[in-house]
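Why run this: before we spend reagent on co-expression, it is cheaper to look at a predicted model of the complex and decide which construct boundaries make sense. The entries below are exactly what would go into the expression plan.
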Amino acid sequence: MSKQLITALYMVPGLPHLLAAEQSPQGEELRQAYGRVGKEIAASEAEVILYFSSQWFSVLGTMVQGRREISGKQVDGNWHHLGTLPYHFIIDTSLAELCCQEISASGVPAKLIDYQGFPVDTGCIVAQTLLNPDARLASAIVSFNIYSNEAAMVALGEACRQAVEQHGKKVAVVVVSGLSQHFFTEPMDPRADAIYSAGDDQWNRRILDLMEQGKLDEVVALCPEFAQEAAADLGFKAICWLRGMCAANPLASAAVYSYQAIWGTGAGVCKFTLAPEAQLLAKPRELGAIVVLDGTKAPAPVGAYPHARRVGNQLFLSGIGPRLPEGRGIAGVEWDEEGKLVAYDISLQVRQVFANIAAILEEFSLGLDAIVDVQVFLTAMKNDFADFNRVYAEYFDLQTGPTRTTVEVGALPTPIAVEFKVIAEIR
Amino acid sequence: MARGKIVAGILAPHPPHLVYAEAAPQNEVHGSCGWESLRWGYAACRERLRALQAEVLLVHSPHWQTIVGHHVIAVDTLKGLAVDPIFPHIFRYHYEVNFEVALAKKIAEEARVEGLTTALMTNPDFCLDYGSVTSLHMVNPQWDLPVVVLSANNSPYYFSTTKGMEEMTKLGVATRRAIEQSGKRCVLLASNSLSHRHFTEEPAVIEDMSAERIYQHSHYQWDMKVLAMMRAGRAQELLELLPHYIEETAAEVKAGALTWMLAALGVPTYGAEVHGYGTVIGTGNAVVGWYEDVEQGASNV
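The model came back. Tokens follow.
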């Protein structure tokens, strides 16, 4: 249902330089991209623009603009020399109320804001001025809680999507966010504008590239690193909200209309298109989210769980033991005539564990070197640790190997003596 | 013209709850009580300042953040409605304020001499930030003194706390020189809380003091340690400790107001008066004054 109601999702920059009368070539390109977005929204069947801006932040839960008509003028705190910014919004109060209701239902306190003079953030003003200057379309605006982590932002987006579904009107979703957020801190000629550093530029291009490939989950997983390395705009968590708006549709792919610098920061104008639902249902393996092998390469699971599940750029494997592919045999065991376990070779079992893990990783085009963390479960630590440790060292070394935790457990499902639980990184 | 001087420096935190609780007529929303230890602290501070016959109030607030340099408001007057974007349900304040433009310009000029980037804010539509409004109200609710408002350059967040403190120190030195040339008796207001981690939910009755407490015990311990240093006149030691304190408590002094003020005061070795300490929605706040008469007493000793 949401697929039909959300006409498109966009990410746009929100710095007021884009409203200046005179534009640098970089600014002009961004303005043109903005113009393209505005035309698309106008030509679409959207009746409402739902804004989520990294520049409107809240502390006490989430705020939603609930005032029927908001108009006034604003002067940006830092860029006041650019002049006074008039603004005008007609708020779709029923959508606002539904957003509040759904956000509250998700466990996050939410409030409707209805105050004369409440400051509208520069980002929303810039976007509204360039996309919907005469307020022909109604708007809804949701705040960005600065204490929310990535997962909470995704959940917030999901709640807003639920509100859109209940509302029933077609909506264009606009996320106002920059990319890298290192500003030049001295006065400069806008015509000489450029991304602050080569490192920031690389990060921005990496993120945009992943978006173009429809790998939003990977972008979400990279947010903390993007923030650390390139000062991504409020952790780039606005994109997590957008991810939540896509619901179970992680393949939303972006078309990048423009990527430029504004005062050193990265600014992108992008359009996200949701993947057709039929594609999602027909080809789950192509999502890359989970893998269940058929038992020929790695032993089939002994319960209702996949071999592996991907979340962003992390791959979580279920506990993997030394059972043999094809059949229910276990590597390195001796049975008596009655089928009771007589002896086992821990070294052979450990090697089989590695083989099974390697087979699963291969499905994601990964090798053992992608493993970043290993938890090892042994049923007989005292007897087996030395041999286990020796074999393990054939695969990993101290400098390049993953982190490891080894514990003894009372028993494992099926008569196996060792099991690994690993996490790998998808590079 | 007599030489201007700083007659007091006040750590003047800006929780809007204080204005709400005292039912200030300029505020659209009136509470019934709450946060008395801080409000009474401000009352004591006002008494001290009245005796010092201040002529200008200078405020440095973290809620006017700038990226390109340090900005100073340089218009004659501003009138408007300041609505707190975080707590709009308790703070919608109608202000009208006159600015000491000559001093503002002089500060910008002296800051440039110190190597800082500066700018003058001259747009008459500018809205004064709620942090400045709250601190100015709590110190002078009559609004009968002209003010100078300085922005909080975000270098502590953008680069590092240390880099930010270097800039704020230069700004403080420049401010002192400008004041000395102005001939005015000035009060500096560092509009900062101490430990600064909020609870993200508030009680149904905003002024329900049974719900008010520090966010965590270690923050309280840190706040007390810092206040003890202020009282003991150990400002230099305090400045050296600030990065650690900020790291441990998310202290709002990271934004630079306290560093600016202590630098302008010449890094005082005389003790400050702690007028009051209290928490506001989990954050630690104190009204603290460094006074000229105490400094003179210390010099005499």
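The domain at 5-300 of chain B is CATH 3.40.830.10 (Protocatechuate 4,5-dioxygenase; Chain B). The two ends of chain B are 29 Å apart (CA to CA). Bring this page to Monday's planning discussion.
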